[in-house]
Write a structure and sequence with these properties.
Elements: H1 21-28, E1 32-36, H2 44-52, E2 59-64, H3 72-78, E3 82-85, H4 90-101, E4 106-107, H5 109-119, H6 143-151, H7 156-166, H8 171-178, H9 182-196, H10 201-210
Parallel strand pairs: 1-2, 2-3, 3-4
Helix pairs in contact: 2-3, 5-10, 7-9, 7-10, 8-9
């Protein structure tokens, strides 16, 4: 009902569990999938992993309670491009989906703070997940130092963009703050992901936080 009321959003299908998602995506080819992390039969993490392994995969936004859901780090590794808390205001959810449809990863400020609290707590991290929240690069015991070493691979402008991503800024906000075009920001973000072996924008933010730069 909430999304259907938005004139520029068309809800093409609904799934009752994660197992139904791949077939519905095949049938309707949506630009975006909004999923709960926890669902019966197949959870949102596994559904996201299956979708992101496909060519031309849709963007995936996860809904989560976050304060108790330690699976969020696995969802990042599965390729989710954004997270919203379930108590997010309806208008903010709609705005976030619009941004995601335009190619921007989204993470509500509350969700980002909760995520940082999760990844900096050894007890909260799922088994096999690094405390930095970055699943691809190896980690050392000194998480902050390792994060700084990774960020040290970036050029000056890339580093500035990475820090801005860590502050939760959108591409348009970064462009305005750093006096560059939005396409240039997008190019820098792509280069950062490639250089650091990361999967998405949220992992950049995690690395910046872990390096103590935010």
């Amino acid at each position: 009902m909430m999304l259907g009321a938005a004139e520029d959003i068309l809800v093409v299908a609904e799934a009752s569990d994660g197992q139904e998602v791949p077939a519905l995506v095949d049938e309707h080819a949506p630009d975006l999938v909004l999923m709960d992390i926890r669902m019966p039969t197949m959870d949102g993490i596994e559904a996201a992993r299956l979708l992101r392994a496909r060519p031309h995969a849709p963007e995936i936004i996860m809904l989560t309670t976050f304060t108790t859901d330690s699976y969020v780090l696995r969802a990042l590794q599965a390729g989710a491009t954004g997270f919203l808390l379930k108590h997010t205001q309806p208008e903010d959810i709609v705005a976030a989906l619009r941004r995601a449809a335009n190619g921007e990863a989204v993470l509500s400020p509350d969700a980002l703070h909760q995520l940082i609290a999760t990844v900096t707590s050894p007890e909260a991290a799922p088994e096999g997940t690094s405390r930095t929240g970055v699943g691809t690069p190896p980690t050392d015991p000194e998480g902050e130092e390792h994060a700084r070493q990774l960020l040290g691979r970036l050029g000056v402008r890339e580093h500035e963009v990475a820090v801005a991503v860590g502050e939760g800024k959108t591409n348009a906000q970064i462009a305005a703050a750093l006096y560059m075009s939005v396409p240039t920001v997008k190019a820098h973000v792509s280069h950062i992901l490639s250089k650091l072996g990361l999967n998405n924008r949220v992992q950049i933010a995690l690395l910046v936080y872990r390096g103590g730069l935010r």
